[in-house]
Amino acid sequence: xxxxxxxxxxxxxxxTQAAAALVPPEYVSQSLGRYVRASWAGVRSGNSGVLPVILxxxxxxxxxxxxxxxxAFLRPSNLVYVFGLSTVxxxxxxxxxxxxxxxxxxxxxxxxxxxxxxxxFKLVQQPGPGWPWWAAVLAALVACGVIGAxxxxxxxxxxxxxxxxxxxxxLLFSGILIVMLGGADGSVSVSSTDSNQRVIYDMVQGLIxxxxxxxxxxxxxxxxxxxxxxxxxxRRRQGLAAPPVSLTIIRIGLVALVGVAVVxxxxxxxxxxxxxxxxxxxxxxxxxxxxxGWTLVLQRTRFGRYLYAIGGNPEAARRAGVSLAGxxxxxFALCSATAGLGGILLGSFFFGEYSTNTADPGQLVLxxxxxxxxxxxSLFGGRGKAIHGVLGGxxxxxxxxxxxxxxxxxxxxxxAYIVPGGVLLGAVxxxxxxxxxxxxxxxx
Amino acid sequence: xxxIPVTTDSEESATQDAGMAIDLTAAPExxxxxxxxxxxxxxxxxxxRAWWLRVRSGNSGVLPVVMxxxxVAISFQITNSKFLSPQNLVNLFEQSTVxxxxxxxxxxxxxxxxxxxxxxxxxxxxxxxVVELVQPNGANWPWWAAIIAALLACSAWGAIQGTLVAxxxxPSFIVTLGGxxxxxxxxxxxxxxxxxxxxxxxxxxEVVLYDIFWGQxxxxxxxxxxxxxxxxxxxGLWTQAARRRRHGLETPPxxxxxxxxxxxxxxxxxxxxICNVNRAHSGTIEGVPYIIVIVLVVLxGWTVLLQRTRFGRYVYAIGGNPEAARRAGVSLPGxxxxGFVLAGLTSGIAGVLFAxxxxxxxxxxxxxxxxYVLxxxxxxxxxxxSLFGGRGKTIHGVLGGxxxxxxxNGLYLLGVSSEWIDVVVAAVLLAAAxxxxxxxxxxxxxx
Lengths: 444, 447
Known about the structure:
The structure holds two protein chains of two kinds.
Chain A: H1 8-22, H2 25-28, H3 32-44, H4 51-67, H5 76-101, H6 109-123, H7 133-156, H8 162-181, E1 187-189, H9 195-205, E2 207-208, H10 210-237, H11 245-267, E3 280-281, H12 283-300, H13 302-312, H14 314-319, H15 324-349, E4 353-355, H16 361-375, H17 386-405, H18 412-437
Antiparallel strand pairs in A: 1-4, 2-3
Chain B: H1 4-25, H2 28-34, H3 37-40, H4 44-56, H5 63-79, H6 86-111, H7 119-133, H8 143-166, H9 172-191, E1 195-197, H10 204-214, H11 219-246, H12 254-275, H13 290-308, H14 310-320, H15 322-327, H16 332-358, E2 360-362, H17 363-367, H18 371-383, H19 394-413, H20 418-442
Antiparallel strand pairs in B: 1-2
């Protein structure tokens, strides 16, 4: 669509370059220098990966640190708060990424997430069902998965456009959400005193003591480092193309550095008064688990490869024997289940209270889509990773919180709409333009 | 007027060309179903058969939505005998008008196989602008200038979104999703404080705006207007058919033209008769509301634009097959941008009606305006407009809006809470989209 017919003859030599740029640079380069050059070629041809979003995060942090009153943005207490606020966007963005990879969209993630949260909260009520927390969480995720499977079926089998199905789903589940809460001013909450409900309350609010945090960090870095190293070694042993040793070491070092920075920031006492508040929020390992799980599914399983195949070219995937309807339905189901987890975290972030004012489901989905696209997931399918959703969610949360720190008075309400809208449009514009620069363009 | 035969002539040859082109690729009976039945039928019986053939092949036109209106009317009348009372019917028409105009806005974009999720907030922007501009202690513009300014603002917004979609090739649902958010913020800024209204009867400008929704034409004037309108439309239909016949062109049978005129007259008489019943609890409120006339004018204007102008034909061409339209020399970005501008303009008209309907605007009204776009899309799709482009007419928006208004009104009369009404409307939207998809599957030619 974007390729001008007149350009087609000259596009042929570009195509080989573009194809080279599509191969991950670690497989084509044998030394660090070559790796850097290959990465740069990828960036220039539109495969910029996580680079733009990290640059944007640095920019946002610096700008808000300068313009917020008292330069408060980068205080440890604010950073930890931003992370808590962003977890919902991160998880929802990862959920949205799954569907975006197919070239579809799910506009109902916000409403479905809140449905999931309310189900989990309702099931642990005492007096009430009084389920154990893990059963309630599981039931919520399954319920959301079923909702997703229904919407996926309408899209994949009946071929109703996904934005219409999920737009209808958004309205439907927003209505059902209010009904489940028992009317427009109903609410449901989990208490921090009941030991069973406290687990859900603590998902975002709870803290891991600094000492445990350091130990956990050491374990995580050791496991991740060992896995990276062993995999590279295994590839090298079998004579496969493997990343250079120096690159593997740099990566392990980076993981350790980021981990140390996070634990260090979280271990600073950020309590204002006599009570010490320090430690790592539980939600950080939870988000890491979601990220790790989805990265494994997307990068290392057949299902993941099929998602990319369908997103890249559905007809080619179908001819290669991929069941389009089945994969699409599963993707919608897993997207909604992941969103359900996000909904539980949302309630936990608001101190275990769920009401109709907790969040606007319409705004949640916009933030989720914007986060995924800002992170580097393409709206046109076939391009994106789980990490993009996480980074994009952090960026969106940072922007939202930074704007709220500015004390703009009357302008703060409208800006809460304008800023994400503008960011979404900007991100999509970059996506569209970078695809134009890229060799393969599949918009029909 | 003198060039009308020429236009008809070229239209006719275009139809013939299309018929020949189809003959090469598809079975003859397929081609037949794509030609409007009034052009192939020489008698009423033939017309009925040709029409039935089209219905079966997925070109069902307004039949499903008319049936839906009948079903809605009967089922609500059974559950609540007030539903079909003149008072409630007029109320229902009035409530539906905003949905109708918004659906007509959405149809321009749907015909192009795009979607505009921002129509609800463009409407809000229009209403906020119009209300703010007539405030006596503010801008204090005359009402007509405020309306023009609101329509211009909405059209300009449509142009921006259209440009992003048509020239930058950004997906329309994302552009308009982001646009919706930005407009929500902009509208809150334009509104300034938390409340602004037009309910003060001491200021002529506010009274005029208020009367757009709440005023009505006197009963006698209503009858006179009806006679004039039906007379004009009837003469127009009849002379057009007569002229075609004189030139030896394919024409609808005389009995069909007569039937159409009679149907129009009956519908008009019923409408005026219902509106002329006194519907006030005390005092007198009778006559046709201005707003019904306004909707009919918008309907007529956009029908002419889509059915009788080159722009309209280009819209259908792009919606049917953009690549074919491009190769035929249609400027895709130009027509697409104009489609979004017209959607913005029509949403602006809805905004003026909305301002008049709500009387005072608040931040909460702005925040809850999100669901209007769903109602607009649902109304258009229920009316028979396809989500996939190239199929639909302006009248579908009006009929679909009536169904939505009827569902809202009927459920409200039954005491159903607003969240359940949303659930029902969502289900209706999904059902309409499902029918749209299935009917396209039934159709022999798939885009």
